[in-house]
Amino acid sequence: MVRYSIFTLARNALTGHEHWPRAWRSPDPRPAYEVVIVGGGGHGLATAYYLAKEHGIRDVAVLERGWLGGGNTGRNTTIVRSNYLHPESAALYDHAVKLWRDLSQVLNFNVMYSDRGVMMLAHSQHDVHILKRHVHANRMAGVDNEWLSPQEAKEYCPPLSIDPRARYPVLGAALQRRGGVARHDAVAWGYARAADALGVDIIQNCEVTAIRRDGARVVGVETTRGYIATKKLGLVVAGHTSVLCAMAGFRMPLESVPLQALVSEPVKPVFPCVVMSNTVHAYISQSDKGELVIGAGTDQYVSYSQRGGLQVIEHALEAICELFPMFSRMRMMRQWGGIVDVTPDRSPIIGKSPVEGLYLNCGWGTGGFKATPGSGHVFAWTIAKDEPHPLAAPFSLDRFTTGRLIDEAAAAAVAH
Amino acid sequence: MLLIPCPFCGPRAEIEFRCGGEAHIVRPADPATLDDAQWADHLYFRRNPKGVHHERWWHVHGCRRWFHLTRDTVSDRILAVYPVGSRSPLASREDER
Ligand SMILES: Cc1cc2nc3c(=O)[nH]c(=O)nc-3n(C[C@H](O)[C@H](O)[C@H](O)COP(=O)(O)OP(=O)(O)OC[C@H]3O[C@@H](n4cnc5c(N)ncnc54)[C@H](O)[C@@H]3O)c2cc1C
Ligand SMILES: [Zn+2]
């Protein structure tokens, strides 16, 4: 792997940037691997990287049916925060936020993590109570989160309208200063490049079409590029988890629904932070390219179409225009959907499955990008040691049987 | 946005409706006899198929009645509409829980 630095940049500039090597190999699949990861999104690639880096397991393949990051990783609005209500969630997401901080150095790839702060607005007394409860719970869990008055919120984000006559007036806000955004594609590419350098085979255009079992154990997968044997299989396929689990013979507590986002034409820097409003179902930040990145809600029905209804976007934009009147004449450039796997308690599922040797990392739903480094880290541990990482243990599949749910749904209404 | 053929009112825009999720999940007849795994299956586990799906819809901003749809979750095309209490004309073995 060529180490990226100012010197390699200068050297390549002299030759017109025509001799940069590929960032990762494109190998044909081998007949067998110690570990096979299905899904080349951020979570799958991070898992492969930490398996090789921290556990010395380099005989690993990542199988991706399309291109790297072409799923939700490359479709999300990249909000990173850890101010979740329950201690189990705050610990899991904060593990990730800590890993984000020096990820660019660790991977030698600029993931553009920017801790510009994430501000969540309260529009009703109910919102005020919920967000203050979050602030207190987070402080007790050692996670930063602070309460702002409407004036303080406007100082932090000048474009915000705090007009008390608004349909959804701003009554205050919760601010996590360590939260922010990162460059989604770079996260997939950075992990792919670093994993490849450690010997992981990253195989694109390779769809898993069947999962082979020998009794209770997994023995391999059929793919569009042939059969691949493995004793340890990690499914990290987000919206397609139910489909792959059906191949292995079991159901999941998941529903797959479209979630949409859109970007505006690029403009000069006008928006300093990330603002989210759960009540009006909109969230917004500005990318380094200058586009406003706006997230909308989910559709109400199960779908794998990667398209959502226009009324969902309309609803989000109505809210954006009211909160930020200066954006009312912005033109939107692109709009798209991703298929997110939603659990009943809006918390992820990480750990073992009913099939021996088959591990699950899914259910991140509308808000898993922020967790990418932490998710990969604890999942690699879980696969390597065949037992859940302590931070992952509460997020086991059997919580739906024992009843120990981690209910972030009631806590947040939406979660990003 | 889906154009949903309410069996009582005719085709109407999706914003008039609320989706009630997977259809034909039968409430346990004798709840006291269920173990935790059976309860989990009833409450939380879903087919969530990529393809033919039977689901409940409620015309909340219209006639306020419930009915069933069979829809393809890849194309979002509606394949059949049928009354509560009956089986879809497209029902298959895979639908059994
Ligand atoms: C519009 C939108 C906005 C979002 N906003 C945020 C946000 O602001 N903050 C946040 O934290 N999260 C957000 N999320 C959620 C976040 O994107 C996801 O939780 C996260 O990216 C999931 O990563 P992943 O690697 O698990 O899944 P993915 O990136 O979806 O990767 C799964 C991969 O599996 C592959 N796959 C599927 N089936 C097969 C098969 N049979 N064989 C081989 N490969 C297969 C897919 O092609 C895909 O590339 C958002 C999501 C969307 C859609
Ligand atoms: Zn009707």
Topology:
The complex is a heterodimer of chains A (416) and B (97).
Chain A: H1 6-14, E1 35-38, H2 42-55, E2 60-63, E3 79-80, H3 87-101, H4 103-107, E4 118-122, H5 125-140, E5 146-148, H6 150-156, E6 172-176, E7 180-181, H7 184-197, E8 201-203, E9 208-214, E10 217-223, E11 226-229, E12 232-235, H8 241-248, E13 255-264, E14 274-277, E15 282-286, E16 292-298, H9 310-323, E17 332-342, E18 349-352, E19 358-362, H10 372-385, H11 399-402, H12 408-412
Parallel strand pairs in A: 1-2, 1-12, 2-8, 4-14, 12-19
Antiparallel strand pairs in A: 3-7, 4-6, 5-6, 9-10, 10-11, 13-16, 13-17, 14-15, 15-16, 18-19
Helix pairs in contact in A: 2-7, 2-10, 3-10
Chain B: E1 3-6, E2 10-13, E3 18-22, H1 36-43, E4 52-58, E5 66-72, E6 78-82
Antiparallel strand pairs in B: 1-2, 3-4, 4-5, 5-6
Zinc ion binds next to loops of chain B.
